[in-house]
């Protein structure tokens, strides 16, 4: 009986020592859950941003303005020139701004019509003549 009591007492002490050592060496896993949620949120954000870029790109492919901008880029017209051509197309009531690129007569007619409502500075007139040369004298 005494040996049984002594064995139970020794076994209890050993279990208590083990549990104390175990509780001192445990690592709190609460931060890893936060990192997992943060990583998942970043991944969802990146997927959403990629989808938005894809949708915007595919929607703008068949747009009249994107055709106009692409033609300006192909003819190496800078941003100010592109803006000026866009305002000329708007002032001359062109349905498709890219029609400025179709021929000299259309370009000249649009510029003449736009001069009635827009005022061009001398540097803008010089830029228009340079753009006209790039379009039609190649």
From TrEMBL:
The chain crosses the membrane at residues 32-51. It comes from the Bacteria. Keywords: Membrane, Transmembrane, Transmembrane helix. This is Uncharacterized protein.
């Amino acid at each position: 009986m005494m040996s049984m009591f002594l064995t139970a007492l020794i076994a209890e002490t050993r279990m208590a020592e083990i549990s104390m050592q175990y509780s001192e060496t445990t690592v709190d896993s609460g931060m890893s859950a936060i990192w997992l949620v943060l990583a998942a949120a970043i991944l969802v954000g990146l997927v959403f941003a990629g989808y938005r870029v894809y949708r915007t790109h595919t929607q703008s492919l068949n747009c009249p303005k994107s055709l106009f901008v692409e033609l300006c880029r192909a003819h190496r017209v800078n941003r100010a020139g592109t803006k000026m051509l866009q305002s000329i197309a708007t002032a001359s009531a062109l349905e498709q701004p890219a029609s400025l690129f179709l021929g000299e007569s259309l370009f000249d007619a649009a510029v003449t019509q736009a001069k009635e409502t827009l005022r061009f500075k001398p540097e803008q007139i010089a830029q228009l003549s340079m753009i006209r040369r790039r379009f039609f004298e190649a």
